[in-house]
Write a structure and sequence with these properties.
- The protein is mainly β.
- It is built from no helices and eleven strands.
- Strands 2, 4, 5, 6, 9, 10 and 11 form a seven-stranded mixed sheet that branches. It has a four-stranded antiparallel sheet with strand order 1-3-8-7, with no helix packed on it.
- A hairpin with a 4-residue loop joins strand 5 and strand 6.
- The model has no long low-confidence stretch (mean pLDDT about 95).
C-alpha cells in the first residue's frame, strides 16, 4: 500500500524556523506532484506549496519568500523549509502527492497523516 509518512513540526517562536519532510513508499511507479497543505481549526484547508517532478514550484502568497519546497526524486521525499514563521502559520500541515501506482493506469491522490506546527507570539 502507498503511504505518505510525515516528520517534523513542533512549537517554535515567531521568527524561528522549522523543517518538514514527507516520504512516499509502496508500489510506486512515479510521482508527479508533491505538496503541502495546511488547515487551522474552523478554516478551509489551503495549498501552501507544490512542486512538480521536474522542479517547478508554486507557493501561496503569504508564504512566498519565507518557505521553500524541495524534493528528492530518488528518495520519493518532499521537504518544506519554513523560515520567519508567524503565528498565522499555525496549523496542521498535510503532505499530498499524485502517485501513479504500479498496476494502475492513472494518477491517485494520497495524503499524509498531518503534523502540527505551532508558532507562538
Amino acid at each position: 500500500q502507498v503511504q505518505l509518512v510525515e516528520s517534523g513540526g513542533g512549537l517554535v517562536q515567531a521568527g524561528g524556523s522549522l523543517g518538514l519532510s514527507c516520504a512516499a513508499s509502496g508500489s510506486i511507479f512515479g510521482i508527479r506532484s508533491m505538496g503541502w497543505y495546511r488547515q487551522a481549526p474552523g478554516k478551509q484547508r489551503e495549498l501552501v506549496a507544490v512542486i512538480l517532478s521536474a522542479g517547478a514550484t508554486n507557493y501561496e502568497d503569504s508564504v512566498k519568500d519565507r518557505f521553500t519546497i524541495s524534493r528528492d526524486n530518488a528518495k520519493n521525499t518532499v521537504y518544506l523549509h519554513m523560515n520567519s514563521l508567524k503565528p498565522g502559520d499555525t496549523a496542521v500541515y498535510y503532505c499530498h502527492a499524485e502517485i501513479w501506482n504500479i498496476g494502475y493506469s492513472g494518477w491517485n491522490a494520497y495524503w499524509g497523516q498531518g503534523t502540527q506546527v505551532t508558532v507562538s507570539s
